[in-house]
Amino acid sequence: MTPHNLPGQPHLAYRDGELFLESARLSALAQAHGTPLFAYSKAAMLAALAAYQRGFAGRRVQICYAMKANPALGVIELFARAGCGFDIVSGGDMDRVLAAGGTPDKIIFSGVGKTRAEMRRALQAGIGCFNVESEAELDVLSEVATALGLRAPVSIRVNPNVDPKTHPYISTGLKGNKFGIAHERVLPTYLHAAGLSGIRVVGIDCHIGSQITQTEPYLDAMDRMLDLVEAIEAEGIPIHHIDFGGGLGIDYNGDTPPDAGQLWALLLAKLDERGFGQRQLMIEPGRSLVGNAGVCVTEVLYLKPGEQKNFCIVDAAMNDLPRPAMYQAYHQIVPLQPRDEEPEVWEVVGPICESGDWLGHDRNLAPRQGDLLAVLSAGAYCMSMASNYNSRGRAPEVLVDGGQTHLIRRRETIGEQMQQEQLVGG
Ligand code: LLP
């Protein structure tokens, strides 16, 4: 078999009838670490970052990796070394960034429900910016900062009421969503913020959704943000940075999102046109940096052909890969060692006791018991949303770097799962 790459997956290729991630033979990784197993390509992550960096050449931009997509310490470390900051959404996220060598001043803290304790710790650590999502949060943050004798650096997250044209669960910038402050309330909120003793206004922020594959929602959101910046600055409140959030989609199944560089060429042209070309920018990409860098390797446990459906039961499940069950998401599923046989149509399902535990419907495969399959585009929002449902330990993660492989997380044991619990006795 001649080597060939998979569409949209430049770091995955079949060589000698076997699937490789960079120079790592995935079947060898499965043998060494067991299945299910996540493997990530370092080169793919750095290539995705480079697409943004190319688009921003010559501009003042801080890329803050939205670590909710994949918060493995080994992944954070890689992005920290590449100069990224981080978009965090909890105190735990902050601890991960600090443990992996990230610097506090490049951290931005998003999320609608920050607790006082989280605010206090983030202020003490000296993070770069709080992206504030409600007027009530602003008042609490001011109180917490004042008590510490500090001023919290703040951006207000704008809800621009723009339809990102993605799955409803991952749309965030529409009026009916819980995120950000409604466009018409933004100016009064900045005026209020400017008078608070514990607040220092530094920027403005928005994030309209995730897995966005079109440019127009971004361009619309940008226009609405810039209108606000003009109105806020006209009141004498300087906006030092503009944060456009993340959200750029990836190719799961023939999706055609714009390349990060192309998207930003259009956005920068608009910024230039409106006189904001030299303003400090921030972005918070998650999925587009890691999604297509990862695969989940799983073993076929049993085949159960049936009258209505053929079930291919694998050892990965909705606890490892929750996106199909949660968002009816599509992930390509391919064999590690394809064989020359006529494929049939299979439902690829996990061992969990729910009909919602499926990984792929109607897939053309020629599986046999014991075969290994790869679930593609599994670098984002898979391990980060994994759970222990059905007392399943979370899978190990391997970072592939050319010919080298690093186990960045070992498989969770049942002992670790039970550690925080105790019997009542008596
Ligand atoms: N910034 C903020 C404030 C966000 O809420 C998010 C994602 C991001 C940045 C990063 O967005 P990205 O570049 O990754 O699209 N679990 C879902 C995705 C949820 C996204 C939540 N927010 C999924 O598996 O599709």
Give me a quick take on this structure:
The protein is α/β, with parallel strands linked by helices and 426 residues long.
Put simply, the count of helices is: 12
Q: What is the β-strand count?
A: 22
Main sheet record: 9 strands, mixed
CATH class of the largest domain: Alpha Beta
Report the mean per-residue pLDDT as an integer: 96
> Structural class of the secondary structure composition?
alpha/beta
What is the beta-strand fraction? 25-35%
Total separate domains: 2
Give start-end ranges of low-pLDDT stretches.
none
Q: Give the fraction of residues assigned to helices.
A: 25-40%
CATH topology of the largest domain: TIM Barrel
Ligands, deduplicated: ligand LLP
Describe the structure.
This protein is of the alpha/beta class and 426 residues long. It folds into two domains: 166 residues, Lyase, Ornithine Decarboxylase, Chain A, domain 1 (Beta Barrel), CATH 2.40.37.10; 176 residues, Alanine racemase (TIM Barrel), CATH 3.20.20.10. It is built from twelve helices and 22 strands. Strands 5, 15, 16, 17, 18, 19, 20, 21 and 22 form a nine-stranded mixed beta sheet that branches. The N and C termini lie far apart (65 Å). The mean pLDDT is 96. The site of ligand LLP has 22 residues, from helix 10 and helix 11.
